[in-house]
Amino acid sequence: MESTTCCIVGGGPAGAMLGLLLARAGVDVVVLEKHADFLRDFRGDTVHPSTLELLDELGLAERFAELPQEHAPTLSMVTDEGPVTVAEFSALRHPHPYIAFVPQWDFLAMLTDEAGRYPTFTLKMQAEAHDLIREGGRVRGVRYRDRDGEHELRAQLTVAADGRHSALRCAAGLTPVGYGVPMDVVWFRLSRRESDPRQEVALRLVTGGLMAYIGRGTYWQIAYIVLKGGYERLMSAGLDVLRAEIVSRLPFLADRVGELADWNDLSVLDVRIDRLRRWYVPGLLCIGDAAHAMSPVGGVGINLAIQDAVAAANLLAEPLLRGHTSVDDLAKVQQRREMPAAATQWMQRVLQARFIGPLLRGTRPPVPPLPARLLSHFRPGRHLIAHLIGVGARPEHVRLPVPDSVPRG
Ligand SMILES: Cc1cc2nc3c(=O)[nH]c(=O)nc-3n(C[C@H](O)[C@H](O)[C@H](O)COP(=O)(O)OP(=O)(O)OC[C@H]3O[C@@H](n4cnc5c(N)ncnc54)[C@H](O)[C@@H]3O)c2cc1C
């Protein structure tokens, strides 16, 4: 039987950041990650100004700058009439006025590597939690399996940071409320040439269709947005139809759509938005996608997960060091983070219901939504949209000093 102070299940953005912050504050922490590595393509690479500022606060700016990355100073919507800049991140009064695109595995490797410098941090890869240990009406840790077999890890606090299909929240009897979503996203990449348009991040609007393309150095990362369940229809229509659709939307890709050789070159995101009513039970707290799965609209998922982790560390490090985390302590994390998650999900739902759904069904013209059209005419308007996306509601800051007594490993 192993034991720790805080057991975090999931080494995604929420779990990795919480592990780092707690270890940095001197809390004994074990992160369990079921995969052998962090390699997952297209798992959200958007690091927003709010997260970049947190990295500054953690003294990680230089390490982050060394990671492969591209910066997007604007977000455009491209219609048949040409591009409209709807968000101008470069107008933000912020130390990092852009969205950084960084492979998520590099980002997670950086966070866990930094956390590994503190002696109270342990990361166990290929360790999958499958059940909770409960005693006296309280969660006391998890049962997990790794290559050596079954184990029990007891903990004062267990954090479910195991993503939108969270097994732990299910084991705790917590069920999220789901909100209808009209779309799914098909991701793929095509190579990028010198002669291509300059837009770093753009949404192409056509009658009955929407496609995002993101400049990633030598390739375009493309999100082909379909109506919910539309992937099956796409598959039965055939790859040639998809290739032709892509070319009709972005003709400059005509010379390379052949790079989509078979369906394995595409990956599908089943978009969902949901949120737990209560993010905790005694001894267990859910954060990140486990508490609130986000739509990819705005690319905010990672950033909200990280903000949850920062709030949880700010509020829980002291009770953890004291030796007892009460239900009230866990409730404070939900009280702090529920509004930003709910407000962001509300904006995503409005955009999906009024703009994306009707656009995909062909019942509204392929033009940007009216508020974006109006705001895009003025710099302060483009600045406002950039602030909503890049900084969001209630950005968190690292409040935990590094205690002098914590030796670095
Ligand atoms: C295809 C795709 C594209 C996306 N694109 C974007 C984007 O562009 N921008 C953006 O901001 N967001 C995007 N998102 C959403 C974003 O990835 C999530 O919002 C964000 O990663 C949530 O972080 P998290 O740490 O809460 O959960 P996750 O990133 O899901 O991490 C959960 C971790 O827990 C591990 N795990 C799960 N179960 C267990 C278990 N039982 N035991 C041990 N470990 C476990 C998983 O392996 C994973 O590493 C995308 C999501 C998907 C699926």
Structure description:
This protein is of the alpha+beta class. The protein folds into two domains: 2-179 and 272-390, FAD/NAD(P)-binding domain (3-Layer(bba) Sandwich); 183-227 and 229-269, D-Amino Acid Oxidase, Chain A, domain 2 (2-Layer Sandwich). 33% of the residues lie in helices and 28% in strands. It has eleven helices and 20 strands. The strands form four sheets. Strands 1, 2, 8, 9, 10, 11, 19 and 20 form an eight-stranded mixed β-sheet that branches. Helix 1 (13-24) runs parallel beside helix 4 (104-115) and helix 1 runs parallel beside helix 8. The model has no long low-confidence stretch (mean pLDDT 94). The chain binds flavin-adenine dinucleotide.
